[in-house]
Design brief:
The complex is a heterodimer of chains A (144) and B (401). Chain A has 144 residues and is of the alpha+beta class. Chain A contains 5 helices and 3 strands. Chain A has one domain: Sufe protein. Chain: A. Helix content of chain A is 40%, strand content 17%. Chain A has a 3-stranded antiparallel β-sheet. In chain A, a hairpin with a 2-residue loop joins strand 2 and strand 3. In chain B, strands 2-8-7-6-5-3-4 form a 7-stranded mixed β-sheet, sandwiched between helices. A 3-stranded antiparallel β-sheet of chain B has the order 9-10-12. Chain B has a two-stranded parallel sheet with strand order 1-11. The radius of gyration of chain B is 22 Å and the shape is globular. The chains are: A alpha+beta (144), B alpha/beta (401).
């Protein structure tokens, strides 16, 4: 298959979980990847500090769609603190790996989630996620 | 289509719709048959004087005539190479270095293949000046800009005959006219065009022209550079007198024989084939227009390769499209940044003014002589829902209401 994607990636690409928009989300993260032009949006519902629902929309390649889907699976039902601990590496591992050139897609998923949490915290506490800002091009982990 | 053109691949690929003929083609059955003896019993090295060697040399001579015949050249003007990329590299480096005493300026276009752009970058590092002339929104090289780019230092113009990404056919004759007025050589990269549409080096007036066998149902790994009689060139490969000392190395006899046969067959059936390819092309265009309103054709609407439909789809990305098509048994390629090694948006699509947000939504359907109307119907049935599905997933397209 294209790019040497794992079966897990293909599974999530073929039938991505939690796709779509969300009505009245408690937080929205919107990130664009300056490297390849991919764009990702993530929406969360939060109740009692727990992410009860999460949805995404993605413009991008197979890896971008699969990482979005996997990220939503991993964060659903988690507390904000637990969700923040989910790194892009954890998403890659859950997908049974990504081709090196596609690793930056997983960074995008992590950033989209953090963006959504940041938005939620801003709305509820007036303070965003401490010390967080979307990574720029130079920080992105992408293979050559 | 004429059944004598059967490649025998149809049966094996039942249910598969191959629409990437710009990238690769099956080897025609007759071509394959012509090659087989040269892969087994006829083992002679064409440089050897004994019988087997002489037989191989004679086979190469015959193939050289056939290839020359395809583009209206003389046999001695054909230099066999290993691929279109080698032909392009050879033409650029070989002509630049052989003529550098006259000047060190080379003109090319903004929509060239990397096998032209990269050797030019290397030449630039070595002290040559390179000018890339822009194209219009249809991908046609701007002739007035070409004229303006000429300097007293200009020695060579290298332009694509037809682009693999957008299919537009370039005004080579007019470019040659400009070059002649300035005593400048012209190389055309005709890898996508030769064997598909009529390419006549006398009519075009070019000094060098690249062509590759696989584009007209010959094998991969064999190509040629046409070089007008009397044109000086420095070899890329040295160490032998093959190809008149211009390309050393034991000849790929089977490949050359196959390229000759493929050239002969491409020439013989060309008019009928073009008519057929155009009919299929129209079917794709009409179908997309009716069923995928967010598909926008790239390249020239009429002045384009008859086996090529390219475009960009709004709000979605090319690799995803290509992967979903693959799941439906349809092979098509994309110029999306996501599949490029450098993760960069296509320079060709940017050059024709495709908007940044659309440039990664490119898809190319390039059909062949064996593509059937049913194949296209399959595409037109499967493609629209793929587009809709990806658009529903895209943050660029907002749900209505």
């Amino acid at each position: 298959m294209a790019e040497g994607y794992s079966n897990k990636v293909m599974e999530h690409f073929r039938n991505p979980h939690n796709v779509g928009e969300m009505k009245d989300p408690d937080g929205t993260g919107h990130v664009g990847n300056p490297v390849c032009g991919d764009i990702m949006e993530m929406y969360i519902k939060v109740k009692d500090n727990i992410i009860t629902d999460v949805k995404f929309k993605t413009f991008g390649c197979g890896a971008a769609i699969a990482t979005s889907s996997m990220m939503t699976d991993l964060v659903k039902g988690k507390t904000i603190e637990e969700a923040l601990k989910i790194s892009n590496r954890a998403v890659v591992d859950a997908l049974e790996g990504l081709p090196p050139r596609k690793l930056h897609c997983s960074v995008l998923a992590e950033d989209a989630l953090k963006g959504a949490i940041n938005d939620h915290l801003l709305k509820t506490t007036g303070k965003g996620l401490q010390g967080w800002k979307p990574r720029d091009e130079h920080d992105l982990e992408h293979g050559h | 289509m004429s059944t004598t053109w059967s490649t025998g691949t149809k049966e094996k690929n039942m249910g598969k719709v191959y629409l990437d003929h710009s990238a690769a083609n099956p080897v025609d059955k007759r071509v394959l048959e012509s090659m087989l003896p040269w892969l087994s019993d006829n083992c002679g090295n064409p440089s050897s004087l004994y019988e087997q060697g002489r037989a191989a040399a004679a086979a190469i001579d015959a193939a050289r005539k056939q290839v020359a015949g395809l583009i209206n050249a003389s046999p001695e003007e054909i230099i066999f190479t290993s691929c279109g990329t080698e032909s392009n590299n050879f033409a650029l480096r070989g002509l630049a270095l052989a003529n550098q005493k006259k000047g060190k300026h080379i003109i090319t276009s903004a929509i060239e293949h990397f096998s032209v752009l990269h050797p030019l970058k290397t030449l630039e590092k070595e002290g040559f000046k390179i000018t890339q002339v822009p194209v219009d929104n249809n991908g046609v090289i701007k002739l007035d800009e070409m004229k303006k780019a000429m300097t007293s230092e200009t020695i060579l113009i290298s332009v694509t005959h037809a682009s693999n990404e957008i299919g537009s056919i370039e005004p080579i004759e007019q470019i040659v006219k400009i070059a002649r007025e300035n005593n400048v050589l012209v190389h055309a990269d005709a890898v996508q065009a030769a064997g598909v549409i009529p390419v006549d080096v006398q009519k075009l007036g070019v000094d060098a022209l690249s062509l590759a066998a696989n584009q007209f149902y010959g094998p991969k790994g064999i190509a040629a550079l046409y070089l007008r009689k009397g044109t000086r060139i420095l070899p890329l490969l040295e160490g032998g007198v093959q190809e008149g000392g211009r390309r050393a190395g034991t000849e790929n006899v089977a490949g050359i024989v196959g390229m000759g046969k493929a050239a002969e067959r491409a020439k013989a059936g060309m008019d009928d084939r073009i008519a057929y390819l155009k009919r299929i092309q129209q079917r794709i265009l009409d179908g997309l227009k009716a069923k995928v309103p967010t598909f926008h054709l790239t390249g020239h609407p009429e002045q384009r390769l008859p086996n090529h439909v390219s475009g960009c789809v709004e709000f979605i990305e090319g690799e995803s499209m290509s992967m979903f098509l693959d799941m439906e048994g349809i092979s098509a390629s994309t110029g999306s940044a996501c599949v490029s090694k450098a993760l960069k948006a296509s320079h060709v699509l940017l050059a024709i003014g495709v908007a940044r947000e659309m440039v990664n939504g490119s898809i190319v359907f390039s059909h062949g002589k064996d593509t059937s109307e049913q194949d296209i119907d399959h595409l037109l049935e499967k493609f629209p829902p793929i587009v809709e599905r990806l658009q529903a997933m895209s943050p660029l397209k907002r749900t209505k209401g």
